[in-house]
């Protein structure tokens, strides 16, 4: 078991890893959605959860719980049926309730409304051409002629939606409906999620291996966080993900872990897990080290900084994308930014 050879590109490495993981197809894959398309939507959704968690000052466990809910729902339901914005917001709302963090719906709506106008303006990207030219990306026409400074100035002048206004009501309605849909789809059984994060095993592994370098545990914690960008939490047991995180952390810090008389990972998770550990580490390496200028690097940039166009198919008003191109929220935001301010 080891890292990929230097001659292999990171994009190839990630794609091969994803191919290994799709032995059990997702609902999107079953309906013919390409793995690369599903991947960028997953990255987009978890990026929104990460940014929202940061703005709301939520704990690491709440972030992990929200990502787990998001991936489990997206594993069972197709991207043709639901958009990642509403699923991500509903996942945050449910995670806050499960983790008992004090936060009102108003705060969640304001954060996602802020992220929405920020993403469709592409206000934070340093290389807009890579994002704007992406086939799955979209941005407001009014933003194309503005400098980065002008975008920030205009965003600062736009107030957050009022509770009595149509924008707030639209966000509230969609998030509330999606919360109920997610709960029904997952069978109302979410209480176990906080106790099943790979982070929970870091201290146990650290003590079991009698380690003394705290940086190793910190690095493994970071890899556990990275594992939530894609659906590893759905496909592998938490203890195997944590073990993979320690393997990568030990490689990064050049710390040798015991292999005699029994390899340390067998001591922790049992025999026959080498293939799973290899698959997980390949995915994490791909997320960490995407080559500059590669297709995957552009996907990561769009998913993390821009707005990914939904592929949801309209099935009546209740199933239509509520904030995609041409929606009420999109047109309203376009009118706001088009005004002379």
TrEMBL record:
<dbReference type="InterPro" id="IPR036915">
    <property type="entry name" value="Cyclin-like_sf"/>
</dbReference>
<feature type="domain" description="Cyclin-like">
    <location>
        <begin position="200"/>
        <end position="286"/>
    </location>
</feature>
<dbReference type="InterPro" id="IPR013763">
    <property type="entry name" value="Cyclin-like_dom"/>
</dbReference>
<dbReference type="InterPro" id="IPR043198">
    <property type="entry name" value="Cyclin/Ssn8"/>
</dbReference>
<dbReference type="Pfam" id="PF00134">
    <property type="entry name" value="Cyclin_N"/>
</dbReference>
<dbReference type="GO" id="GO:0016538">
    <property type="term" value="F:cyclin-dependent protein serine/threonine kinase regulator activity"/>
</dbReference>
<feature type="domain" description="Cyclin-like">
    <location>
        <begin position="47"/>
        <end position="184"/>
    </location>
</feature>
<comment type="similarity">
    <text>Belongs to the cyclin family.</text>
</comment>
<dbReference type="GO" id="GO:0006357">
    <property type="term" value="P:regulation of transcription by RNA polymerase II"/>
</dbReference>
<keyword id="KW-0195">Cyclin</keyword>
<dbReference type="InterPro" id="IPR006671">
    <property type="entry name" value="Cyclin_N"/>
</dbReference>
<protein>
    <recommendedName>
        <fullName>Cyclin-like domain-containing protein</fullName>
    </recommendedName>
</protein>
């Amino acid at each position: 078991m080891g890292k990929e050879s230097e001659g292999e590109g990171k994009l190839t490495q990630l794609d091969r890893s994803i191919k290994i993981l799709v032995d059990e197809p997702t609902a999107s894959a079953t309906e013919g959605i390409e793995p690369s398309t599903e991947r960028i939507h997953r990255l987009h959704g978890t990026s929104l959860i990460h940014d929202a968690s940061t703005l709301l000052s939520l704990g690491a466990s709440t972030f992990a719980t929200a990502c787990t809910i998001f991936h489990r729902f997206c594993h069972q339901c197709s991207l043709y049926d639901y958009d990642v914005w509403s699923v991500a917001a509903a996942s945050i709302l449910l995670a806050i309730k499960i983790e008992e963090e004090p936060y009102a719906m108003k705060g969640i709506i304001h954060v996602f409304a802020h992220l929405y106008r920020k993403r469709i303006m592409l206000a934070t990207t340093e290389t807009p051409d890579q994002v704007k030219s992406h086939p799955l990306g979209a941005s407001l026409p009014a933003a194309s002629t503005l400098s980065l400074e002008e975008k920030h100035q205009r965003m600062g002048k736009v107030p957050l939606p009022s509770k009595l206004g149509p924008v707030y009501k639209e966000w509230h309605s969609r998030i509330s409906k999606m919360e109920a849909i997610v709960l029904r789809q997952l069978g109302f059984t979410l209480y176990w999620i906080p106790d099943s994060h790979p982070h929970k095993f870091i201290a146990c592994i650290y003590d079991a291996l009698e380690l003394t370098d705290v940086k190793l545990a910190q690095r493994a914690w970071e890899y556990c966080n990275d594992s939530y960008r894609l659906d590893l939490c759905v496909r592998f047991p938490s203890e195997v993900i944590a073990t993979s995180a320690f393997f990568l952390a030990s490689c990064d810090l050049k710390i040798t872990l015991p292999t005699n008389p029994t390899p340390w990972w067998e001591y922790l998770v049992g025999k026959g897990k080498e293939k799973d550990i290899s698959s997980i580490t390949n995915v994490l390496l791909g997320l960490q080290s995407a080559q500059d200028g590669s297709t995957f690097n552009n996907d990561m940039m769009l998913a993390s900084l821009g707005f990914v166009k939904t592929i949801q198919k309209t099935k009546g008003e209740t199933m239509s994308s509520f904030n995609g191109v041409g929606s009420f929220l999109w047109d309203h935001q376009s009118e706001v930014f088009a005004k002379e301010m």
